[in-house]
Amino acid sequence: MACSSAAPKFAVRRQPAVLVAPAAPTPRELKRLSDFDEQDGVRVQVPNLYFYRRNKSMGSKDPVRVIQEALAKALVPYYPFAGRLREQDGCRLAVDCTGEGVLFVEADAEVGLEHFDDPLLPPFPCLEELIFDVPGSSAILNTPLLLFQVTRLTCGGFILAVRLNHTMADAQGLMQFLGAVAELARGAQAPSVLPVWKRELLEGLNQQQPALVHGKLHEVSGSNTSTKASSIMIPSDTAALRLRSFFFGAREIAAIQAQLPPHLQKRATNFDTIAGWIWKFRTMALSPDPDEVMVLAVVVNARGRNTTAVGIPIGYYGNAFLVPVAMSTARELCTNPLSYAVELVKKAKNQVDMEYMRLTANLIVLRRGQSPRIAAGMYSLSDTTRARFEDLDFGWGKPVYGGPAEAVGVPSIPWVGSFLLASKNADGEDGMVVPMYLPGPAMDRLVEEMNKVLGLSADVTLHQPHVSLSRGQRYE
Asked: Would you identify the family this protein belongs to, as annotated (predicted)?
């Protein structure tokens, strides 16, 4: 993202990018990726940022050298990351474990942490300076699979930027690898969790079987929306979108759960509660045609769920997420109580079991090479807090912010999805923040609904953004 006129500008001096190779010899082999590593939207580069304060106990230690040396050590057990991605047998992806290494950029910025917003949340100013797109490095095939940039700040802190080729790992897998780098940086002799490849575990068995469980999603993706609904829900000018980040702490979640029946208050997770509330009131704010089919896609990590038959082992760092969907007409979503939306979210998540995973793998194979279609009523939520990026400690303590560098997963169509990010409010209370893009009138209506939950006036909320709205920005 380019620096806007309102964003703080700063100069960054970068050294030429270098390749960091494994610190010891590694196997030379070809390792095939799984079907889940090739699902829709995964052939992308994903940037994350981690902001660290100065730590007196680290003395004169240089974060650039500490992280660079630990990275080289971590690439020995995680040697596929040091290879290059190739295509074989048509579109199938495999890692050529060449041991060439990952890209590493050393940088210094004429800025301190105090020059960034409080709380720290995406979108960040001058992002392209903090994670430099090394020419020729952003292709999915035949390029380094990771790019690191460590930028020292004038305050003594630093920013770590990591760009991941998403085909290699999901958020949990990336955190596992970065956790290994952090452990080695703090002096460990070996990572506490050893990596496991075994991508063959997540492949479809019957690649010709129709994935019936996903049939409705396919129909919705290809459905025609009414002109009225589309004109409201899909803005023709993305520059007119407004961005706000909604904070959900203990107070906000308790206020929302108070609207649910007692049995659901006990069974609904924080994610269920937040997702159901956002889905319902975002729909009401957009005022779609009552017959419009609204689809909420929720990103679910398959690790630790009812997937014992496949045996996803501890240490598996490939893509192991699924995206089940909840569906409802706008009329039912808006007129039913909040419990209706929350129950649909729970039902969608609970679909994820071994059979669902196999059917998903089959569907990925059947759709290979097809571009995903986005319908007007689609929206997705991804809970990045489960990856625990905010715990990543290289010796300087936990980051002030750790997580996605972008406010939304697909910046080119920012209104179709949001992350749940770990954050704190102005009182230091832990919670989750949901950045969201909407047209101006719809955003005003959603802000009003949030104020109703908290019993506040619009003026109070906007003047005290930490209460329920962590930040606001208009793209102009």
From this structure: Belongs to the plant acyltransferase family.
